[in-house]
Structure formats: structure tokens, C-alpha cells
Design goal:
With about 170 residues, this protein is of the alpha+beta class. It has helices at about 1-10, 35-50, 50-60, 85-90; strands spanning about 20-30, 75-85, 100-110, 110-120, 120-130, 135-145, 150-165. It contains 4 helices and 7 strands. Strand 4 (about 110-120) and strand 5 form a beta hairpin.
Length: about 170
């Protein structure tokens, strides 16, 4: 779910986008107090793991195709994201979400309003992306997704993106 929201929040449409390595930070807050507390507790627990335990957890998860992003001091999850020259030239960042999803963008002053809807997995959301030149953005989304028991859970997703360097290589 977080990757879907992250991807949706990074869609920037016709704004100029600088190719290269970007850092995306995402903070998710649930409308349900119990779920929000569970998310906060999990993020804090992840952040407080000793390096050797975190390495073992990351290794175990990677064997199943899951990568946990680092956690920032404010509780935001952060991950690198590569924007290729072709992606930047198209002026539209792809939505790498799995499933059956559609999205719509409408230009607004300084950025875009956007919405998405997925039938599998069941999810939807709407929000805004505000560009700060070609190398940074902020985003705010209201989203909901299937909680697995037939009810929709609501989330607020605050995101930022910042360009780091022209090359997508780690070093």
C-alpha cells in the first residue's frame, strides 16, 4: 500500500523533472487511532533495532522480495528513486503500482491535483503535488485501501521528494 501511495504522490505530469537519483520521504497517518498507533509503534521499533538485527531482518525480507526503507527521525519512510532521462523527457513519472489502477492529473498553480483508483487491490485516493522547480516537490494525499476484511481504511500521506544527483548509481 505504501508503495502505491508513494508512486501516486510522485506523479508530476507536465512539470519539468530533473533526471537522476531522487530521495522520496513518505509519512503515513491512519484515520483509525488504533491503526495509527500500530504504524507509529512499528516505525519506532524498526528505527530502534540494533544494526545487526536490522541487517538480519532486511536479509530475511529480501529473500521474499521485500525491502524496508530507512526511517527518518520524524517517522517518515525514505527510499531512493531513479528518474531516467526518458522518464524526465516524458514529463510524467510512472505509477509502478501492481494491480489494476488508473490515475488522472489536472494541472493547478505550481503542480497538479491527482486521483487514482485501483480495483485490484481495492484502493483510491486524491491529493496534490506541488513542484519546487525541477528538483523538489511536496505532496499531500487522502487515500483509502481495503483493510482485508471488507472495510476501507483511510490514510493521509504526506510526501516530499528531492533530487540528489544526476547519476542513479549508489556512489
Amino acid at each position: 500500500m505504501t508503495l502505491l501511495l508513494l508512486a501516486a504522490s510522485t506523479q508530476a505530469g507536465a512539470q519539468n523533472i530533473r533526471p537522476g537519483l531522487w530521495e522520496l520521504s513518505v509519512k503515513v497517518k491512519s484515520a483509525d487511532a488504533q491503526t495509527d498507533q500500530a504504524i507509529s509503534a512499528a516505525v519506532k521499533q524498526l528505527d530502534s533495532l540494533p544494526p545487526e538485527q536490522r541487517a538480519r531482518l532486511d536479509s530475511m525480507l529480501q529473500q521474499n522480495g521485500v525491502t524496508l526503507p530507512p526511517v527518518k527521525s520524524d517517522g517518515a519512510l525514505r527510499r531512493p528513486y531513479c528518474i531516467t532521462p526518458e522518464m524526465a523527457a516524458s514529463k510524467e513519472l510512472p505509477l509502478p503500482a501492481q494491480g489494476q489502477c488508473s490515475s488522472k492529473r489536472i494541472a493547478i498553480a505550481g503542480g497538479y491535483s491527482l486521483s487514482y483508483e485501483c480495483s485490484k487491490p481495492l484502493a483510491r485516493g486524491q491529493g496534490t503535488v506541488l513542484m519546487q522547480g525541477d528538483s523538489a516537490f511536496t505532496s499531500s494525499m487522502e487515500a483509502s485501501s481495503d483493510a482485508g476484511d471488507g472495510r476501507m481504511q483511510k490514510f493521509t500521506v504526506e510526501s516530499t521528494g528531492r533530487w540528489l544527483k544526476a547519476s542513479c548509481t549508489p556512489k
